[in-house]
Design brief:
Layout lengths: L11 E8 L5 H13 L4 E5 L1 H12 L3 E8 L8 H9 L3 E3 L2 H7 L2 H10 L7 E5 L7 H6 L1 H4 L3 E5 L9 E4 L2 H11 L3 E6 L5 E2 L2 E2 L1 E7 L2 E7 L6 E3 L2 H6 L4 H13 L3 E8 L5 E8 L16 H35 L2
Helix pairs in contact: 1-11
């Protein structure tokens, strides 16, 4: 992994990985290996080194092919630099402005619903209006069901989710306990049993490819979804649903949770996780299967290779044009 001071790095890198979470280290190493196999230049910066990278890129001419952003949610000061590098031709995975938009569950609920994606019934409440909307809660109790789910309106990864709320007291307690300003109330989806598994899936989208996995909503354990299961249980529509979510969100890499409900309908339960957990299952029981991470790393490095080829072709075309000028 790139471990020199940023001031010693070259003026161009085919792939740059910016990260902060310690559990991203292994995936960063896998990306480095994939890039090395394709003869691509690679740079990786974590934590304080990200700030050093910002200072370097501001003071020196620098360009990148693909930038894999795993840090702008905790170091928002880098967003302006990422957008500047994007304008200069870098491919951002993902665009930080679009990630911020996707984090708003209320917005995504409405976007998906209006585009024809089946989502659970939901209500949005804020600290400013939740008291006066308790009457509405009473009116909607049959559609919302009991128990129901409370989620923070922004964020992902299952943080802050209450799965068994029963009424207004639970809502008031949630506001007090979490300090959230806006929340989503969502009908709780009970998955249909498919064979011996709960019909719940976490599906990856990576640069145009759909990679579906079984994902137990109780244990959070992944298993690859085999083609024969897709056929046996009528799961082919997963691909179209995730493709539609990708077009709406404009994300290059994300996960979404989709369940088969008791009526046999595919329902998008958790919409867009724009910085998905990429821990390896070999080290973490609830991590991602190695074969899935291999596909993600290969797709990212292949996109970097394609960008490098395009850059080389553009440079060669420019040289030929200059040589032929009178």
């Amino acid at each position: 992994m790139y471990d020199s001071a940023p001031t010693s790095m070259p003026r161009h890198a085919d792939m740059v990985v910016l990260w902060d979470w310690k559990h991203d280290a292994e995936f960063a190493l896998k990306l480095q290996s994939c890039c090395a196999a394709r003869n691509l230049s690679f740079a990786s910066f974590r934590g304080q080194r990200v700030k050093d990278f910002i200072a370097f890129a501001e003071s020196e001419p620098f360009s990148a092919g693909l930038i894999f952003d795993r840090v702008s949610d905790v170091q928002p000061g880098i967003v302006y630099l990422l957008l500047r590098l994007k304008r200069a031709g870098a491919h951002l995975v993902n665009d930080p402005e679009m990630m911020a938009w996707c984090r708003d569950k209320a917005t995504m609920h409405l976007e998906l619903l209006s585009s024809g994606v089946r989502v659970p019934y939901g209500l949005i409440l804020s600290t400013a209006d939740h008291a006066k909307r308790l009457d509405l809660l009473e009116l909607c109790k049959e559609r919302l069901g009991s128990p129901f789910v409370i989620k923070p309106a922004e964020g992902g990864g299952g943080d802050g989710v209450e799965l068994n709320a029963l009424g207004s007291n639970d809502i008031a307690d949630y506001f007090r306990r979490t300090g959230e300003g806006k929340i989503m109330l969502q009908r709780k989806i009970l998955p249909r049993i498919l064979g011996r598994r709960r019909g719940w899936f976490r599906v990856f989208w990576v640069l145009g490819a759909v990679v579906p996995c079984w994902w137990d909503d109780l244990t959070h354990v992944y298993d690859p979804l085999e083609p024969e299961d897709e056929a046996s249980f009528g799961l082919k529509p997963l691909y179209a649903i995730v493709g539609l979510i990708a077009r709406i969100s404009k994300m290059d890499l994300f996960t979404t949770e989709i369940a088969v409900d008791e009526d046999g309908q595919l329902v998008a339960v958790d919409f867009v996780n724009e910085m998905p957990d990429l821990r390896f299952q070999g080290q973490h029981p609830d991590g991602v299967p190695g074969a899935v991470l291999d596909r993600i790393a290969a797709a990212l490095s292949e996109r970097s290779a394609a960008l490098a080829r395009a850059r080389a072709d553009a440079g060669e075309a420019g040289s030929q044009k200059g040589a032929s000028a009178p």
